[in-house]
Amino acid sequence: MPLADLLRLAVAVLVLVALAYGVLAWTGRRTVPDALVAVLRAAAQLALVALVIGWIFAHPAAVVPYLAVMLVAAGATSARRIGGGWAALPWLLVSIGTGPAVVLGVVLAAGALAPTGQEILPFTAQVIGGAMTAASLAGLRMRDDVAHRWGEVEAMLALGFTRRESVADLGRQAAARALVPAIDQTRAAGLVTLPGAFVGLLLAGAEPWRAAQVQLLVLVGLLAAQSISAVGTAVLTAPLWAAARPVVAVR
C-alpha cells in the first residue's frame, strides 16, 4: 500500500476510534477498554491474516488446516464468552463446525462456488464467524434464562426429568432469540445495509449483479449455518446448565 494511502487510513481509523471512545466513556463500564483492545487486536490480526492468506492462496492444500484453526479459535471464543469452560468446548466445536460444513457441502455440490482456495476460504471463514456468533448468543441466553428460572428447572429435576428435558423449553427460546440478528441482517440486506461481500466485490470492480449473487449466497449460507449452530448449542450444552445453577456474569 502506498504511504499516502496508509496515512489516510491511519487518520480515519484514529478519528473513528476516538469517536467510539468518547461515546462509550458515557457508559462508565468495562466496554471502553474492551473496545480499544478489540481495535488493536483487529489491526494486528488482519495484518497477519493478510500475509497468511496470501501464502495459502499460493498453497491450496493449506486451506483445510487454516479453517480447522479458525474453528478451534471460534469454539474457544464462544466457550469463554458463555462461561461454559472446557466442558462446553467439545460441544461448541460440534455445533459451530456442523453448520459451515453442511453449507459448504451444499454450495460445492450445487456448483455455486468453484472448489478453489480463493472462493472456499473467504466464504467458509465468514460462515464460521456467523456460526460462532449464533452459538455465543444462544449459550449466553440459555445460561442466563436457566439462572433466572432456576426454581422451575430444579422442580423439573426433582420430578424426575432429565437435565436435558428440564431446560429444553429454555433452549428453544434461546436458539430462536439468537437468530434474530441473522434474520434481521438477511431481511435488511440492500434496503437498510449493503453487506460486506457486496461492497467488497463492488470495490474490486465486479458487476453489481455478480456482487448481488455472491452476497445472497453468503446471507443464505450464514442463516443456515447460524440456525444449525444456535440449535446445536442449545441442545448439546443443555446438561451443563442444568447440572448446577449457572453464574450470571455482569456484562
Mean pLDDT: 87
Show unreliable segments.
Answer: none
The major β-sheet equals: none
Count of helices? 12
CATH level 1 name of the largest domain: Mainly Alpha
What's this model, at a glance?
By secondary structure, this protein is mostly helical. It has two domains: 58 residues, no CATH class; 185 residues, Up-down Bundle (Multidrug efflux transporter AcrB transmembrane fold), CATH 1.20.1640.
Describe it.
The chain has 251 residues and is mainly alpha-helical. It folds into two domains: 1-58, no CATH class; 59-243, Multidrug efflux transporter AcrB transmembrane fold. Helices cover 81% and strands 0% of the residues. It has helices at 3-24, 31-58, 63-82, 85-110, 117-148, 150-158, 163-166, 168-178, 180-188, 196-203, 208-236, 238-243. Helix 3 packs parallel to helix 5, helix 4 (85-110) packs antiparallel against helix 11 (208-236) and helix 9 (180-188) runs antiparallel to helix 11. The chain is globular, with a radius of gyration of 20 Å. Its main location: membrane. This is ABC transporter permease. It holds the Pfam family UPF0014.
